[in-house]
Amino acid sequence: MIPAFAVLALFFTLLTLSASFPFTPRDTIPSGEKLLILPLGDSITFGYRPGFNNGTDGYRLELSKRLSGTSFEFIGTVHSGNMSNNANEGHPDFKISQIGAVMEPALDMGPNIVLVHAGTNDINKAQTQEEPYSTAPQRLGTFVDQIIAKVPDAVILVARIIQAENDDTNSRIGPFNDAIPGVMKSRIETGHKIAIVDQSVITEDELADGLHPSEAGYAHMGDIWFNAIQNASVTFKDQSPFLATGPAQSRRHLGPRR
Ligand SMILES: *[C@@H]1O[C@H](CO)[C@@H](O)[C@H](O)[C@H]1NC(C)=O
Ligand SMILES: *[C@@H]1O[C@H](CO)[C@@H](O)[C@H](O)[C@H]1NC(C)=O
Ligand SMILES: *[C@@H]1O[C@H](CO)[C@@H](O)[C@H](O)[C@H]1NC(C)=O
Fold first, then answer.
1. 3-class DSSP state for residue 142?
2. Where does the record place the SGNH hydrolase-type esterase domain (predicted)?
């Protein structure tokens, strides 16, 4: 017979242990595969901030902190910021179609997660006859089709883009964002792992220069991306959410497929 106080003491010891146990994986993304994350977009993906023309770690810094309990790597052909893993596919100044025209080598790297934040330059710059503001959401649809064609099994997280300071620009961002679910619907219905991520909660208070986030704004974006990846691991649970997709998959395969 074990005395009651001993049971109690053991209970409290365990309680203390679990509270201080360093490996409580609350923030870990369940995944049988290494997450190969392609941050894809324009200067906001590059991490541009005034005074840092070569870019900063941008939202990738906070995202990498949140992913520290998970096996992951950022991929892409562009390098910006001070992190050792500073790869991305952020092209400052580029509109959706311009990003689409150069992204193939990055998609060939075989991302299983693509973070899309694109459209700001379509909406902020002067519109052209070929690319009017009104069809920017459709251009985003075509862009996502290009991604699907290359990496059909990847989780594609499409941002409702962040707000801008300029009222004119901002008055077009709202309708652009609101059109995204309609544009993505058919792509989602064909079984592709696409989710829409609301980055538009980043308002002008979190900008450094009217268009680009401050350091705090970028950190906020990183948290949102992290939550979106967490959500994707649940939403697409029955579809092997983070299946390795690219040529590098056998080399990068880390554990049993789920
Ligand atoms: C920015 O990039 C250019 C071109 O790669 C390089 O020459 C320059 O030294 C960089 N500046 C800083 C501050 O890192
Ligand atoms: C990156 O590192 C360089 C060199 O140490 C430094 O000058 C620069 O301010 C850093 N950039 C950021 C965004 O932290
Ligand atoms: C994650 O899912 C929750 C629950 O549906 C939702 O409230 C939240 O907005 C989602 N987060 C992101 C970043 O998509």
1. helix
2. 40-219
Confirm or reject CATH 3.40.50.1110 for domain 38-241, answering yes or no: yes
Alpha helices, DSSP H, located in 32-166:
43-46, 59-66, 96-102, 104-107, 120-124, 136-150
Residue 52 near ligand 2, beta carbon < 6 Å: yes
Cα distances from 212 to residues 50, 161, 209, 228, in angstroms, run: 8, 11, 6, 21
Query: In sequence order, what E strands does 125-219 have?
Result: 155-160, 194-198
Q: What does DSSP assign to residue 18?
A: H
Instruction: Look up the pTM and report it.
Output: 0.85
Rounded (5°) CA angle 233-241-180: 80
* Residue nearest to ligand 3 atom 4, measured at CA: 231
Question: What whole-number distance in Å separates Cα of residue 247 and Cα of residue 108?
Answer: 7
**Which bound ligand lies closest to the C-alpha atom of 81?**
2
**Does residue 54 line the site of ligand 2, with CB under 6 A?**
no
Residue with the two structure tokens 């080598």: 105
pLDDT, tens digit, 9 for 90 and up, residues 213-237:
999 999 999 999 999 999 999 898 8
Mutate to test the pocket of ligand 2, among 43, 82, 83, 212 (most ligand atoms within 8 A of CB): 82
73's tokens: 């790597």
Which CA distances in Å does 127 have to 26, 98, 134, 251?
Answer: 45, 14, 9, 44
Residues 34-45: tens digit of each pLDDT: 999 999 999 999
Q: Kindly list the protein residues whose Cβ atom lies closer than 6 A to any atom of ligand 3.
A: 197, 224, 227-228, 231
Pairing of strands 87-90, 72-74: unpaired
